[in-house]
Input
Amino acid sequence: MYKFWIAAVIVYSSLCLVSTQATAANVFSYAQIDVPFDVRVDGTWVKVIESREAWEAFYRENAGKYLAPESELNIPPQFDFDAYTVIAGGLGAGSAGRSLMIEYVKGGGSTTYVGALVLRSDGGCSITANVTYPTIVILLPKPQGRLQLFSREAVFFCK
Output
């Protein structure tokens, strides 16, 4: 009976710890924007866009390289930049078998944290020899304080 009680206390303590950690940081929703282009640069990059003018310039500069001028896709989506911020980022030129995704957007105190996950093949996958430019663009509520961006890598295996 004594061992069961200790196990119950450990489980209860763990649950309290988990619930405390879950409320310590607010998880924010965000929207991934499907842009009709990849930003074709050599290295890893990130851009925080906080105005309509900066967004339109970024969008037109990149979409205009790959789309016909009369294409409807040349018109950038419109957002309320008083309430939202756009974050764009990419891995730059590299071999196929890489991708980029947002792992989390959360806030704690006066800081908003955005975590990206870079996925890379272990090399055992059957992939094309194309050069790719993984790019991601997200829309999130305008941070009220600092914005901190993080990334980590993960390897996926093919059999």
